[in-house]
Write a structure and sequence with these properties.
With 359 residues, the protein is of the alpha/beta class. The protein has 3 domains: 6-227, Rossmann fold, CATH 3.40.50.300; 242-288; 297-358, no CATH class. The chain has 12 helices and 11 strands. The strands form 2 sheets. A 9-stranded mixed beta sheet has the order 5-4-6-7-3-8-9-10-11, with helices on both faces. Strands 1-2 form a two-stranded antiparallel sheet.
């Protein structure tokens, strides 16, 4: 089975910590308060696709196409060259968005089936829809349909405004879109001084190994967002703990672990994406499987020695019985005695019975 192809977002640094990009036909939600750069993320995402031969659809619920293109130019993205050729806009407001979701977008998806060119989509922002529909069930239903429809075109990036209360990680008003999306990143403004006063965190990323740190980012005109990250795992660290995993697999095997459990450890080995040692994780996992303390070397050695002692004792016992047989019966009668015993004609339980028989 071949590995799934990842589609780069074009957000510099972000792809390094999400296995190279997003999966096709999935949704990525960008959540943040005003001034965190959500629209810049959206423009950069679209520009990357257009520059690499894709089409793009920009769904706006606030600004018209002309204003979006003007703001893009200010950031160094020349989207004008693609306008109404590879780049298309939908501009809708409030309740009109429901008609867009129910009628216009499904028709667009149907028409697009005849074309092989991939289309990446942006919804910037989703906030007016959330504000316009107060009923949570209705809101969930329309967001579900919106995401399902647009994912048929290609990967989708959605931005939404957040209003978190003190102590909240994310605002309650964005919980439904976060839940319905395949991936979500959170942008925050932290006025701590210096160039890096904004930070990105990955809330979720389905079927993806992703970084779990807080990543500062800056805006560079002509490039866009630059996220300050290191790769999820470097080339040097990729196989750094193979010996430890192999030792754990051997230990589990020596202690009678099932094939499925050994396969799970092998899978963890293949997908370990952290720079720190997996020893503690393996110990906890072993304990959860009823192999308490099984990763300790002395336990493994003790069990091996016990097994070896039993084998050696059995060998010594066999040699002793052979010597007794030769001594009491005699070499010339051994074969006869063995034959009698093997045929089950004589049943001797005590040594004195054997002596009496020989006399």
């Amino acid at each position: 089975m071949s590995e799934e192809v990842r589609i780069p977002t074009g957000i510099l640094g972000l792809d390094r910590v999400i296995e190279g990009g997003v999966r096709d036909n999935t949704t990525l939600l960008v959540v943040g308060s005003s001034g965190t750069g959500k629209s810049t993320f959206a423009m950069q995402y679209l520009a990357y696709g257009l520059e690499h031969g894709e089409n793009a659809l920009y769904v706006s619920m606030e600004e018209p196409a002309e204003q979006i293109l003007r703001e893009a130019r200010m950031l160094g993205f020349n989207l004008d060259r693609y306008y109404n050729k590879e780049l298309f806009f939908f501009h809708s407001k409030g309740k009109d968005f429901v008609k867009l979701v129910d009628e216009q977008l499904p028709a667009l998806v149907e028409a697009n089936k005849d074309y092989a060119v991939k289309t990446r989509v942006v919804i910037d922002p989703l906030t007016p829809l959330i504000w316009a529909i107060q009923d949570k069930q209705e809101q969930r239903d329309i967001i579900t349909k919106l995401f399902y429809t647009l994912k048929q075109l290609g990967p989708v990036l959605i931005t939404t405004e957040e209003h978190a209360s003190p102590g909240e990680t994310v605002g309650e008003d964005v919980l439904i879109p976060i839940y319905m999306s395949d991936g979500a990143v959170h942008l925050s403004y932290r006025p701590i001084g210096g160039a890096f006063n904004r930070a990105l965190e990955i809330i979720k990323m389905r079927a993806t190994r992703h970084g779990e740190e807080v990543y500062p980012y800056i805006f560079v005109r002509g490039i866009g967002v630059v996220v300050r990250t290191t790769p999820l795992i470097s080339a040097e660290d990729a196989n750094k703990y193979d010996d430890l995993f192999d030792k754990a697999i051997r230990t589990a095997g020596d202690l009678g672990a099932s094939e499925s459990l050994l396969e799970r450890i092998e899978y963890v080995k293949k997908n370990w994406a952290y720079s720190f040692s997996p020893k503690e994780t393996l110990q906890i996992f072993f304990e959860s499987q009823g192999l308490t303390g099984s990763i300790r070397k002395e336990d493994v050695e003790r069990r091996k020695q016990e097994a070896q002692h039993i084998a050696e004792h059995a060998s010594e016992q066999s040699a002793f019985l052979a010597d007794v047989e030769k001594t009491l019966v005699g070499p010339e009668q051994t074969s006869c005695f063995t034959k009698q015993k093997s045929e089950g004609l004589i049943d001797i339980e005590e040594l004195k019975e054997l002596e009496q028989l020989v006399k």
